[in-house]
Amino acid sequence: MTILTITNKTHNNIQTSLITFGNPHSCDGKDIIICITGNPGFVEFYLEFGQELHTKTGLPVCVIGHAGHDNVSDIQSSKLQGQEHLFNLKGQLKHKLDLLDNNIDNKSKLHFVGHSIGSWLCSLPSHYDKRVLKYLNPHIFEKVLFLAYDEMDNITTLNKDGVDKVKHLTNIIYSVDDGWAPLNFMKDLMIFQPYLQMMEVNTDHAFVFKSSEFIAFIASDFIKPKISAGM
């Protein structure tokens, strides 16, 4: 039986919620899927997606959101003022590296699934109501907006050198009706084909609300051929 766990860990000095399926913390070197959410980084919106990835691949899955995007008991420890370095892009990167260095089996091969860092909430099915209400907190949303502005200020061009180094390991799922990532951005990535695999879909940018199973199916098909031999 699949073990679903929601735990609170401290990463880069910030209390953080993690959702795991299986045991990515200690799994004898088995391949692991790390899912990094979009912004807002509310991990509970990715429950169905994480479950589908785990079911379709049989691999342990860890879903992590963004520093400061959780309801925490100690609000002072996650306040934005005076701690901006913990919640900007560099701070979020350190936050994820802390997870990998200290809470993920270091013998494992990792498969990263990243959702855009600029998602938004719209047209939610009714079963998401309680999840939304949980995060309607000004202490959280100030950090959501802070990260969004930092993204738009600092991510302005495609890191072609970076993509070139990992093109043979990278797969892109994009939508023609995304509304956030324009189609011409995808054309910039097409120069790396056929090494970089790309698939066009017809889903909303915030796919976790309506298309978790569909996107998980595609992502799983990308991951399965890359699973370590003998799995």
Mean pLDDT: 79
Supply Rg: 17 Å
Q: Under the CATH scheme, which architecture would be assigned?
A: 3-Layer(aba) Sandwich
Could you estimate the helical fraction of the residues in percent? 25-40%
In CATH's first tier, which class applies?
Alpha Beta
The succession of helices and strands, N to C, reads EEEHEHHEHHHEHEH
Helix/strand/pairing category: alpha/beta
- Residue ranges: pLDDT <50 for 5 or more in a row? 118-122
What would you give as the CATH superfamily? Alpha/Beta hydrolase fold, catalytic domain
Hey, roughly how much beta strand do the residues contain?
A: 15-25%
Overall number of structural domains:
1
Shape descriptor reads: globular
Largest sheet at a glance? 5 strands, mixed
What's the β-strand tally? Answer: 7
Span between N and C termini?
18 Å
Sheet with most strands: strand arrangement: 1-2-4-3-5
CATH topology: Rossmann fold
Q: Helical segment tally? A: 8
